[in-house]
Design a protein that fits this description.
By secondary structure, the chain is an alpha/beta fold. It folds into 3 domains: about 50 residues, no CATH class; about 140 residues, Aspartate Aminotransferase, domain 1; about 250 residues, Type I PLP-dependent aspartate aminotransferase-like (Major domain) (Aspartate Aminotransferase, domain 2, 3-Layer(aba) Sandwich), CATH 3.40.640. The protein has 15 helices and 15 strands. A 7-stranded mixed beta sheet has the order 4-10-9-8-7-5-6, sandwiched between helices. Helix 1 packs across helix 2 and helix 13 runs parallel beside helix 15. The longest helix has 22 residues. It is globular. Bound molecules: 4'-deoxy-4'-aminopyridoxal-5'-phosphate (PMP). 4'-deoxy-4'-aminopyridoxal-5'-phosphate (PMP) binds next to helix 6. 4'-deoxy-4'-aminopyridoxal-5'-phosphate binds next to helix 6.
Length: about 450
């Protein structure tokens, strides 16, 4: 470590611990943060940045706002990819966690933990069908890995089906079910036994099952694809998967990591189609925007394999009492505030207005789709997708492209966003499109 590197770290931690920054300090902190990324994280992270300015360094989150080091206020329409259902720093969730922190931090892993039991109980009450048992982890990919193991245990089979453009995470197991060649190829061979079938094609699925259905442990599916581009299935698709998996004794695993917990206008997206899975995974909004927690849930039949050895899926950190207390409070708030209905109503209007924009700029917007506040705006090319995200950033709206379909811009604001603020997003979106049209003219 050189003297200047040591100096960098000391000064950066000093500034980052401050309550407030002057404009000069904000600039200095931004520069040091960029330098820290270059020196100690990965310089490649900076490639996607827009020029090394202080408004590319985050400082404060407040409800639907993300505020940068230099005080620029961004309307957060990315919502941490679905994490911030309640917005940033919801008071009640933080208070619940702080209360429990007064007596305990991480858990012993030997004594039993009351908040884990209470949280699992509330999840069982809220979740669709016969899902009853839960295990907690720290991220969606890890819970998906666990669900793959539970499916193998429960069925004694080793084949898993996932769909084109699916995203289930980046651990070796979850990546095996993710379908984007560019992020898989460098790591092959991945876990054997994964088959990709076309999304939303029930006939292809039925044909496959007619041949090899007896080998299939689980079918892993996002009820609405997120990273694939906010892709809605036809109404027959999920009920069809349910019917056919039952017919062949295969399990249906719904990955509701992104769609779950009110995002799409129902508590769980599966409820749009009345589908009851054998396994379900949750993450993102489960921690109320404050803590990292994910979960795998299963029916009693599926969980039987874990009765033989409950330690097949364990994790040191997740499910600590303050974390579970935060998640419990978040779920209670989702229910008390009827956040699903809020999402449905606001989403319907938002999509309607975006379609109006599409009518006015048909050469720029190919399609607007979504349910609740889980919205994708597909631009007419990948380059345009990236460009519009940049133009929105310039207009202080935070969005991103979907990972497996970069032409699509995702709009996933906190579900507590006001209609007034939605109006503001729409006018900035329109302004961005207008500037593109003028550029082309
Ligand atoms: N499943 C889905 C549907 C997701 O959208 C994501 C993340 N975007 C994951 C799994 C992975 O979750 P994590 O990043 O917490 O591992």
């Amino acid at each position: 470590m050189t003297a200047s590197q040591t100096e960098l770290i000391c000064r950066l931690r000093e500034l980052a611990f401050r309550r407030e920054l002057s404009p000069e300090e904000a600039r200095e902190m931004a520069e040091l943060t960029f330098a820290g990324y270059r020196e100690f994280l990965n310089p490649a992270f900076l490639r996607a940045k827009r020029g090394g300015t202080a408004h590319e360094v985050e400082w404060r989150g407040e409800g639907p706002w993300m505020i940068s080091a230099d005080g620029e206020r961004f309307i957060d329409c990315l919502g941490g990819y679905g994490v911030f259902a309640l917005g940033h720093r919801p008071k009640e969730v933080i208070a619940a966690m702080e209360q429990v922190f007064q007596r305990i931090g991480l858990y012993s892993q030997e004594l039993l933990n009351p908040f884990q039991a209470a949280l699992a109980g509330l999840l069982a009450e809220l979740s669709p069908g016969n899902l009853k048992y839960t295990y907690f982890h720290c991220g969606g990919a890890e819970s998906n890995d666990a669900a793959i193991k539970v499916a193998r245990l429960a069925t004694g089979r080793t084949l898993h089906i996932s769909f084109s453009r699916a995203f289930h995470g980046k651990t070796m197991g979850s990546l095996s079910a993710t379908n984007r060649p560019s992020i898989k190829r460098p790591f092959e061979p991945l876990v054997p036994g994964f088959v990709e079938l076309p999304w939303n094609d029930l006939e292809a699925f039925e044909r496959f099952m007619a041949g090899r259905g007896g080998e299939v442990a689980s079918v892993i599916v996002e009820p609405i694809q997120g990273e694939g581009g906010i892709n809605l299935p036809d109404d027959e698709f999920l009920p069809g998967l349910r019917r056919i998996t039952r017919q062949y004794g295969a399990l249906l695993h719904l990955d509701e990591v992104q769609t779950g917990l009110c995002r799409t206008g129902k508590f769980f997206a599966a409820q749009w189609w009345g589908v009851e899975p054998d396994l379900m995974t949750l993450g993102k909004a489960l921690g109320g925007g404050v803590v990292a927690i994910s979960a795998v849930m299963g029916t009693p039949e599926v969980w039987k394999g874990l009765e033989e050895n409950p330690y097949y899926i364990t994790n040191t950190f997740a499910g600590a009492q303050p974390v579970c207390a935060a998640a419990l409070r978040a779920l209670e708030l989702y229910r008390e505030m009827d956040l699903a209905e809020q999402s449905r109503e606001k989403g319907e209007k938002f999509v309607g207005e975006l379609r109006e924009l599409q009518n006015r700029f048909p050469h720029l917007i190919r399609e607007v789709r979504g349910k609740g506040l889980f919205i994708g705006v597909e631009m007419s090319s990948e380059a345009l997708g990236k460009k519009v995200a940049d133009l929105l950033f310039e207009r202080r709206v935070l969005t991103a492209n979907t990972m497996n379909n970069p032409a699509t811009i995702r709009i996933e604001p906190p579900l507590i966003i006001t209609e007034e603020l939605i109006g503001e997003v729409l006018s900035r979106f329109e302004d961005a499109l207008r500037s593109l049209s003028q550029e082309a003219a």
